[in-house]
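tool=predict chain=A
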Amino acid sequence: LNNFCDLKALKQLFWTELNYDRVNEPLSTRTWSDGAKAALAADPVLIAEHGDFRVIYIKLNADKLLLSYERPITKQLLKEHPYALFVFADKTDTNWHFINIKEDGSSKKMPVLRRISIGPDEKLRTAAERVALLDVAVIDAGSIGLPPLRIQQLHDEAFNVEAVTKQFFADYKDVFGGLRDELEQQTGDRAWAHDFALQILNRLMFLYFVQRKRWLNDDAHFLKSFWQAYKEAGQAEDTFVGDWLNILFFAAFNNKFHSGYKQFPDHIKTALQLAPYLNGGLFSFNKIDDQHSCRITDHRFERIFNFLEHYNFTISEDSPLNQEVAVDPEMIGKVYESLVNVSEEADTRGDMGIFYTPRIEIDLMCRLSLVDNLTNQLGAEYKTILYELVFAMEVEEKSAADAVAARSNLWPRLDQTLKGITVCDPACGSGSFLVGMLHVLDDLQIRAAQQLGYQETVYERKKRIIGQSLYGVDVMDWAVHTAELRLWLQLVIDTELEPAELNFHPLLPNLSFKIRRGDSLVQEIAGINLAHIAMEDIPPALKGRLTKLKGEKLKFYYNDPRRKFKRAADLESEELQLHKDILRHQQHKLQNEMAALERDIEQGRGSQLTLGGTKAVTDYRLEPQVKKWRQEQKNKSAQLANVEQAIAALNSVNAAPFVWDISFVEIFEGEKRG
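tool=predict ok
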């Protein structure tokens, strides 16, 4: 597969290596639609077969392999060739997709396109292992041949993404465990070693996704070149992570690289000077980095590097109907959900209430919840139209549903409603629901823009949707960071910039205040439930600060140079101070109300002259009201005690706790009040 560059190589693979029968027969496209024909550089060619199973070569009239071209072409070919492998090439035969079709298992029996990618930028070990499984000689020992259904099953097994996931997890677990144990030996802190190991592997995997964009020295294998340059530069032993990798992470990716770093050869200096300005928080020096001093040896890094080099990383996160047999961002979520626990008491995922939800179920939940929300906002009379719009998957289905919505003049209202929707996953885990909802909202807003005649770049639209619509909460730090990673990768996928533009502005938004760490059910600190503290009747001055905080969060998300708070810690400090000031306002308000009740009680009590002097008596006509005032006073005293305990609890911490009204102030102080 290393020299896979033309049709001759494809024929050699299937005729000689995989033992299929030789064929070389062009296939007619006479009955095809004009759109499907336009995607072709030439007629498809049947190049191999085994019985009634076909291998069909299709050259696209495009520089890139586009899924939007592949799906309608396979749909046409399946009509006459139900048992087949479809091999797509770009118009220069440089990049290839081997595509297996498998029904999704739903009642609609939608075709899922599962692909193996081959090309100069791909890691080919997994591809070679999976393609080798297509050899019919391995299972066809007799001379009669295999039925096409059995060969199709053979192909289905070879393209099984779950098999790759299981192997990746087993290898990851081994590499992760070795790194964690080595860090624990140095520091004696197992929990920190767990977090640090996850974080550095997180950063390295993001680097593998980013280098696919050729943003680092126009090199799709930059880390390999970077590691090789270190080994050839005669550096002191065990300094790669500390003196090379950390400079890439904390200086180059934050637009802070300068000529003072003398350890790098000239070609590496140039690459680091032109590295993309990622920002966003993933490559910020944080409390985990600062907590302990440790050293990752070159030997340990080489084990990590060899593991990562084994797999092909794809920056395209699969949809339910399109899957790549490679490591995608969703697979990272699966891995982290399996490695969550540190304590000896909670050593299974179920103990933490953490379970992986399959992609197809997530997609269904996203679409069903969106239909309900849109129906509630636009009217029950549109529910059928909305259902067809949201659940349209194929191009023909979308065209038909869009036309019905246009005839009902629904698009202007739908467009505004989609832009105003806010979605929160209160236990977001690795972000699967948020990514799923991003896919659905993005698709609908693409279609709305087409109907209404306005334009946005894919990057701008997805960045706006994440900023306006998506929120998440999870009690686990690893989950928050993984959800952020997956949303960032959604933007990386679709960012097409010239090299000079890559370090001009930060590419990644700050998600620190979109995905929050906290307990969405029990908003406690030091045993005090802050969710029970009323946030109503806030005076204008504090409301003004809440409004300013809302604006500053938006500026922080967009890395606005005019923002007041340059660091997440500064914005968190403002949140904490606002928490305290709201509680102090509640404290003073309750104190004043209790004093007013005391005056009412005193006024309801008269005085009577007796031989022993005067004594207080209660007018019997006011006695029921006085009892009521005393009960109110007692209730407010209990409320005041809670508020004062909450103030004391907040004074004992440096970071703002998660409380819905403050942590997502832009939602709960808006017109809809959440």
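The two ends are 54 Å apart (CA to CA). The longest strand covers residues 96-103.
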